[in-house]
Design goal:
Elements: E1 3-11, E2 20-27, E3 30-35, E4 48-51, E5 56-59, E6 61-66, H1 82-94, H2 99-115, E7 118-123, H3 128-138, E8 141-145, H4 155-169, E9 176-184, H5 190-203, E10 207-211, H6 215-225, H7 229-235, E11 243-247, H8 253-262, E12 265-268, H9 270-275, H10 283-289, E13 292-295, H11 308-323, H12 331-345, E14 362-365, H13 378-385, E15 391-396, E16 399-403, E17 406-407, H14 412-427
Parallel strand pairs: 1-4, 1-5, 6-7, 7-8, 8-9, 9-10, 10-11, 11-12, 12-13
Antiparallel strand pairs: 1-2, 2-3, 5-14, 14-15, 15-16, 16-17
Length: 429
């Protein structure tokens, strides 16, 4: 590893303080100093010193819900209703994937994440060993979420798989870890869900799943079980150790009370929910009640971009439309959900803010561009006018993975060629 000094920098620590002007030092994978230049340690020999020229350094974004390897289905089956898209297009194509495919396709997603200032993702997909290999080789943090589903006849096999994967990856000290989870209530038999609740209690671990994404999902669950997905999972004791839901567009008052009582995370995915006409999650209501919020892109088959700037903008402005209140969901709240909320939801408690001793997961944003001038309010500029073009540098664990349009751990030309070969093979016949 190495030591790097960033100086002549505007710094947004995301700890509640204002933007300061100073410098930040990185030693190996940790932040060694952050503050004004006059207070910085002297007589330190750095491996590299980077003059930011007044540009901004801030914590990286954390993508709290995605399906990275679905890059192969980007723009493949668009402009379709959710159920047709999922059951007639996505599931049949996913059945053709191999572990080698997922390894390549995950790397394609990582490249896109890095250009958007994202250094970690909460990923639900198949072949976790392939995702783990891609993450470790890239130096990108991937927290894998269990994705089991199936019928009552598949219960034992599904639970054994989840148990095995959790124990295989739970203690990894590198860039990969694992959380208990399953695809969704509507794809998972009650027997499997009860077994997952037991695993949660056994390991004292949180559980995450797709939850209340559409009206039909909630209605179907009520017809099958007499209660909403959230209430059903609560009745099984699934949330005794926390967890959360992805999407959470249609939570009722009882559901929200459960989220508050159990300290659950609501991970919003505004671009995907808009594109699939699923709806707008009531984030302002959630925030008012004290529900913890994080932001994810969802997968590139339903979004189709893996762009945190777009998610932040939509998370803010859609709430203003939903509530008919231009003051709703202020930019700083959205920025906090994208950086700190995502980190906490994934268990990355030392990757959330820029403070001495925390992990050096950070980005540099170019403020010397038209869309960031004048600098009346930098956090609001980031949410309302910022784009991926402002990302100059992305660092994960003290290692620069993306800088000035170049990747340090990814051969993108090779990845692009392999990705196109994969989809061409699948659609050949």
């Amino acid at each position: 590893m190495s030591s790097i000094r960033f100086y002549n920098a505007r710094i947004l620590k995301m700890d509640g303080s204002d933007v300061l002007y100073g410098e930040l030092h990185v030693e190996n994978d940790r932040i060694a100093y952050v503050g004004e230049e006059k207070n910085a340690p002297v007589d330190i020999k750095f491996d590299r010193e980077i003059n930011l020229g007044g540009n901004l350094i801030m914590p990286s974004f954390k993508n709290a819900h995605t399906h990275s390897a679905m890059t192969f289905l980007r723009s493949f089956a668009d402009d379709m209703p959710l159920n047709d898209w999922l059951f007639k297009q996505v599931f049949p194509m996913e059945a053709k994937l191999t572990a080698d495919d997922i390894y390549v396709l995950a790397k394609l997603a990582y490249a896109e994440y890095l250009t958007s200032g994202i250094t970690a993702c909460f990923d639900m997909y198949f072949e976790p060993q392939a995702m783990a290999a891609a993450a470790e080789e890239t130096g990108f943090r991937t927290i894998m979420c269990g994705s089991v589903s199936g019928s009552a006849e598949e219960c034992d096999a599904a639970l054994l798989k989840l148990d095995t994967l959790y124990n295989r990856y739970k203690d990894k000290s590198g860039f990969v870890s694992y959380r208990l989870g399953f695809h969704a209530e509507y794809t998972t038999d009650v027997s499997i869900m009860k077994g997952i609740a037991e695993l949660s209690r056994k390991y004292k671990q949180p559980v995450f799943t797709h939850n209340s994404e559409t009206v039909s999902e909630v209605r179907g669950c009520i017809q099958r079980n007499g209660m909403t997905p959230t209430a059903l999972m609560e009745s099984m004791g699934m949330f005794e150790y926390g967890g959360g839901g992805f999407h959470c567009v249609y939570l009722n008052d009882e559901d929200m009370e459960i989220f508050v009582r159990r300290g659950l995370w609501a991970v919003t995915n505004p671009a995907s929910n808009c594109k699939l006409a699923s709806g707008i999650a009531p984030l302002c209501d959630m925030k008012k009640r004290g529900i913890k919020l994080a932001i994810g892109t969802d997968g590139p088959a339903s979004n189709n971009a893996l762009d945190m700037f777009r998610e932040m903008y939509l998370a803010a402005v859609l709430q203003k439309v939903l509530t008919n209140d231009a003051a709703a969901m202020p930019a700083r709240s959205v920025l906090e959900a994208a950086c700190c909320g995502g980190a906490a939801a994934m268990g990355l408690d030392d990757c959330d803010t820029l403070e001495t001793g925390k992990r050096a997961d950070l980005i540099v944003l170019d403020l010397n561009m038209p869309n960031m001038q004048p600098m009346n309010n930098i956090p609001e500029n980031i949410v309302y006018s910022g784009t991926k073009s402002n990302v100059k540098l992305t660092m994960c664990a003290g290692r620069i993975l993306y800088e000035n349009g170049e990747f340090t751990t990814l051969d993108t030309a090779k990845i692009y060629a392999q990705s196109n070969e994969i989809i061409n093979r699948m659609t050949k016949n």
